[in-house]
Amino acid sequence: MTRTIEVTSNPNLAPVFAKAVATSRLKSGKALPVLDVVRRDIQVDPSHLAAYNQVSGFPLRNEVPSTYLHNLSFPLQVTLFADRSYPYPLTGSVHLSNRITQHRPVLLGEPVTITVSTANARPHRRGAMVDVLGEARVGEELVWEGVSTYLYRGQKAPGEVEEPAEESDAVDGTGSIWRLSGDLGRRFAGVSGDVNPIHMNPFAAKALGFPTTIAHGAWSMARMLAALENRLPSAYTYEVSFRKPVLIPSTVRFVARQDASSGDWELALRNNKKGTEHARGRITAGSGG
Fold it and tell me: Is the pTM of this model over 0.90?
C-alpha cells in the first residue's frame, strides 16, 4: 500500500534539509518506498508569486508559470528525501535534469493539489539515478506534471548501466546577454526555499569544490522559459538538462532557435566569454509527449 505524508502548509526547508542530511548516514540503498507526499488545495500567494517572477524574469500576469509549480513541489521533494524510508542520501546528490508538462495554464486563484513520489531507480556510471515525479491537479483535473532526475554519487541501484546516447551540440550563436549579480543565489533561495549554502555562501561552495557560489539549476530552468514565455502555446513539454554550474557573479548568454516546420524550440545557456554550456533545453508544443 502507498503511504502518504500530508503537508498542510509550506514547510520551512532549513530544518527539513537538516533532517535530510542527518538521516543520510542511515540510508541503506534498499528499494524506493511506495510513498506520496501531498499538499492539498494550495492557494498561490500573489505577493510570493510576484517576487518569484521578478527574480526569474516572468511578467506579472494571471497565469502561474509552469516552473513555479515545480517550485511548489520542491519542498515536498525534500520532505520525501528526509523520510527514513528513502534509501539515498541527500549529501552528494546532483540535480541532473527536469521535464515539465503543462497541460493547461493554472490561473491565479485556482487551488492546486500537488503530489510527489519517486520511481525508476537505475544505475549510472557514477552512482544511482532516481526520478522524482510530481503532479498538480485543480480538482480532479491533471494540469501539470514534472520529472526531476537526481544522481546519487557512489550509490547503487539494480540493473545494467546504460551507455549514454550520443548528443549533438547545443544551439549556439548570438543571443540575450544576462549579467548575474553575486546575490542571485540568496534572492532565489528567498523565493524557492532552497537554502543549500552552495548557492549563498562562497566558503561553503569552496568546501564542496566550487570556486564561488553557483546559481540554482531551478533558476536557470525558470529564466530560460521566461525568456520565451510570450511565444509559447498553452500546452507544452519543457525539458532541460544541467551541464556545468553557473558561477555567480558571471555573464551568461541565452540562445534560442525555433524549428520553422515543427515550432519546437532548442535552448542553451552558455558562459558568454568562454561559450561553456551550462544548460540545454527543448520545448515541444502539446502535452502528450
Answer: yes
